[in-house]
Amino acid sequence: MRLVETAFNGKLHLIIQRRGMLKSIILSLMCLFASTATQASDLSNKLKSPDYVLLMRHTRAPGIGDPPNYSLEDCKTQRNLSAEGRKQAVTVGNWLKKQGVKSADVRTSPWCRCKDTAELLKFDGFQVEPSLASFFDDMSNAKETTRQLQQFIAETVKHKGDKALILLTHHVNIYEFMGENIASGDMVLAKVDSQGKLISFKLIERPN
Length: 208
Fold this sequence. Notes:
Blueprint (H helix, E strand, L loop, with lengths): L1 H47 L3 E6 L25 H16 L5 E5 L3 H9 L6 E2 L13 H15 L7 E6 L1 H8 L8 E6 L5 E7 L4
């Protein structure tokens, strides 16, 4: 009889222990989901405000600069996205939507690798913005191009409503704007002042 009672108590203790472990796992998952939702809400809410913009470097396009005698009117003459780069752009677009960024005003450099990245994000189209154009071929244009970009940001955020303003551009442009090197497909959540100048930033590495 004692043997049966001991075995029963042992099983009961094991059941209670397992239920306790299951409850802990469920609570941990709930906390994880709540944390993810909070982060997502923070990014999308900031991009709805006129104080933030999202700069993004085009996704993978192997090489440096462009071939000699390239033309902005002919994508075949430029350095373009690889197959991997095109997949990366789709992944970034999907990731942004999962973060709660449902609507965006997408502006891009006139270079095809930036336009292709913008298109593959799959928001409501995109527009070419001259102040996002690369000055890699003539670095003496860095200050003036950045000034024009700041002016563009200052004017555009006033009228964008709650749409995210996403700016597709190049390594040199982003470095000049915020002073950091970023990899292909990385993003910068930039807080700007009323003149479009950078106040602070958060680097967002390209999601895989």
